[in-house]
Amino acid sequence: xxxxxTLPTPRTPVAExxxxxxxxxxxxxxxxxxxxxPDTEFWHARDVxxxxxxxxxxxxxxxxxxxxxxxxxxxxxxxLLCRIRSGALAGILDMIAVDALAVVVSEWRPSRSLAExxxxxxxxxxxxxxxxxxxxxxxxxxxxxxVVSLDDPNRVRVGMDGIAxxxxxGRPPSVTRLDxxxxxxxxxxxxxxxxxxxxxDGVDGLVGALVDVVATPxxxxxxxxxxxxxxxxEGLDWSxxxxxxxxxxxxxxxxxxxxVVGTSLA
Length: 266
Hints:
Layout: E1 3-7, E2 22-23, E3 28-37, E4 40-47, E5 52-60, H1 67-78, E6 92-98, E7 101-107, E8 111-112, H2 114-119, H3 123-143, E9 156-159, E10 164-166, H4 177-191, H5 203-215, H6 221-231, H7 238-265
Parallel strand pairs: 1-6
Antiparallel strand pairs: 2-3, 3-4, 4-5, 5-7, 6-7, 8-9, 9-10
Helix pairs in contact: 3-4, 3-5
């Protein structure tokens, strides 16, 4: 279970959260901004004392109301994600409060963004294979009366094993099951560069659609070439081809003779 720590005001102001800057009292060095959602940033960072790369979900609660209460509630919802046993969710390491910021620290995996995957033209079959483990994790969460919080596709990255996973966990207060389903559909659109999406209104229907795609054999270039060659008569043994053609001609001739004889007798 990750621990929750409250840190003093960071030395680096919020406006200076840029690659290379130190964050959270110098605990983390920000390496790259991997995306953002409303009031939330997703960072690849370096845990300086531990000497390891981590993923940071930085949610801001600087609006009206008590930021401390909002941060505590954010952490209370986020920790429920630890109950979901799936490799499609990055493990949560820490949760820290930095003033009006709720920071979820999770494991960093060598991975690619959705845009980078889409540039590789994985196709529908590859996209479905990549997304099924995450969709099953969402299904498991929904059956357990909770949500994964896929409110933005920027939370998702694709590991070097080709599996999409929740790289930046964190549960905003307003996320619903429908947001999870819409988020999965958005990930699907991004991976396929907009060529495929799902109109399923529930995670069960989406999982079923993905499984159907994966279960459908994919025609390779060799398969397509065989079909073309067969249509041109190139894929058959010539002796077989000659026998077939001879048989057809013989049947036609015999049929004609039979018709002539029959009409003559009539």
